[in-house]
Design a protein that fits this description.
CATH class of the largest domain: Alpha Beta
Strand content: 15-25%
Radius of gyration: 21 Å
CATH architecture of the largest domain: Alpha-Beta Barrel
Distance between the termini: 19 Å
CATH topology of the largest domain: TIM Barrel
Oligomer: single chain
Number of helices: 16
Bound molecules: N-(iminomethyl)-L-glutamic acid, fe (iii) ion
Shape: globular
Length: about 400
């Protein structure tokens, strides 16, 4: 049976070119996909047999897309949060054996079933934040066995929970403790064992690498991404987060679909990525949570013709948030984005970064009926009430999954 949301005060639908379609007094008719949308008086004529939902004059947008997250972890790292607030830096904590390596140790101790159980409440929280699709990375296993365990857990969450999870292999997230003396040996395992095994089992769509001083060099990152490509995995890259390593240029060179963080991206990196059509994924949660103040140059990116996505980077170390609306606020306040630009980046931009454009992230006919009814009537109130969740209803593939802000 189809559903019709009527009495929509304002519907906003992101266009492919970065602009918006806005309709007042609108309605949307859908089953699992959007059937039609437009002025209420026109849509209602087709909705005779549909179940009617009254939006009460509120705002409706596509479901949000969180295109960069690390949700498959075992334990929080609040101890490191305290350490940073007492003056230790993220890198100092990492070099002394904490950071990602601490998440690797705890992840290796738990079973796949246990991991799924810990992840499912996080999936609920994405949905109640208006997020209907996430990208989910591995990268806390760092061995064949434990990377597969993470990716299998991600697949099970995708199957068992209404949220859609798009899997990314991030075996090159760090060098695990047991290979600190021989990083080449670990890289060989990544390229000769982990990538082929994951690709063969179709457990990931993307291959990512943390390209950073003290982690993977640009040369090593190139080799990993090229190997992933040979096995059919589309490149993504953690780029220029803490220093300018030339990772943005590398993203353009290898034909990455997106490059993420980019707080220290160079002008030449911006130009090359924009020309190559690589999506610029901004992760302001990691900037604020690590106590830094250098945000990505979003206005320069837009001036260069680049496409932006905004994501939470949800992970236990550098960005422990699932509130994508708050990430919009940070991009408006610290990067000078307008609300509409930020909302484009969390809907259509996120879909583009995940190769899902035309499938979700907009409200066109034939697209998955992933929709949010907000508790406000104007989009600029979303980032304005910062840190306040204003999601009222969420539809995922046409099914009501959040009502009055609560999971059904
Ligand atoms: O995107 N930069 C590398 N990876 C994550 C952090 C992961 C962690 O600290 O656990 C990020 O910020
Ligand atoms: Fe990340």
């Amino acid at each position: 049976m189809s559903t019709c949301i009527k009495n929509i005060g304002k519907l906003i639908n992101p266009n492919a070119d970065g602009t918006w379609e806005e309709i007042n007094d609108a309605a949307i008719l859908f089953d699992d996909k959007i059937i039609r949308y437009g002025r209420e008086s026109e849509v209602l004529t087709d909705a005779k047999d549909a179940q009617i939902v009254d939006a009460g004059g509120r705002l409706v947008t596509p479901g949000l897309i969180d295109s960069h997250t690390h949700p498959a972890f075992a334990e929080a790292r609040a101890v490191e949060f305290e350490m940073r607030n007492q003056g230790k830096s993220y890198q100092e904590i990492a070099v002394s054996g904490g950071g990602i390596r601490s998440s690797v140790r705890s992840l290796r101790e738990i079973s796949e079933d246990d991991l799924v159980e810990r992840m499912l409440p996080r999936m609920d929280r994405f949905l109640t934040n208006g997020i209907t699709t996430i990208e989910a990375k591995s990268g806390y296993g760092l061995s064949l066995e434990h990377e597969l365990k993470q990716l299998c857990a991600i697949k099970r969450c995708d199957q068992e929970h209404p949220l859609s999870l798009v899997p990314t292999l991030l075996a090159a997230h760090e060098i695990p403790d047991e290979y600190r003396h021989d990083r080449k040996a670990y890289l060989n395992i990544v390229m000769n064992e982990i990538i082929p095994a994951v690709a063969e089992r179709k457990l990931a769509l993307f291959c990512d690498v943390f390209c950073e001083e003290g982690v993977y060099s640009t040369q090593e990152s190139r080799t990993v991404l090229e190997t992933g490509k040979k096995h059919g995995l589309i490149p993504k890259i953690h780029a220029d987060q803490l220093t300018d390593t030339g990772a943005a240029e590398l993203a353009a060179d290898v034909g990455a679909i997106s490059a993420e963080h980019l707080d220290f991206i160079s002008d030449s990196g911006i130009a090359k990525m924009a020309e190559a059509g690589v999506v610029f994924t901004l992760l302001p949660g990691a900037v604020i949570f690590l106590g830094y103040n250098q945000y990505p140059p979003a206005r320069k990116i837009l001036q260069a013709g680049g496409n932006i996505a905004i994501a939470t980077d949800f992970n236990p170390g550098s960005s422990a948030t699932q509130n994508l609306s708050l990430m919009m606020t940070l991009c408006c306040v610290f990067c000078g984005l307008t609300t509409k630009e930020a909302l484009w980046a969390t809907t259509r931009g996120g879909a583009r970064a995940l190769n899902l454009e035309g499938k979700t992230g907009c409200i066109d006919a034939g697209v998955d009926a992933d929709l949010v009814v907000w508790d406000c009537d104007e989009e600029n109130l979303i980032p304005y009430y910062f840190g306040i969740n204003q999601v009222r209803k969420v539809f995922k593939s046409g099914k009501l999954v959040v009502n009055n802000g609560l999971i059904i």
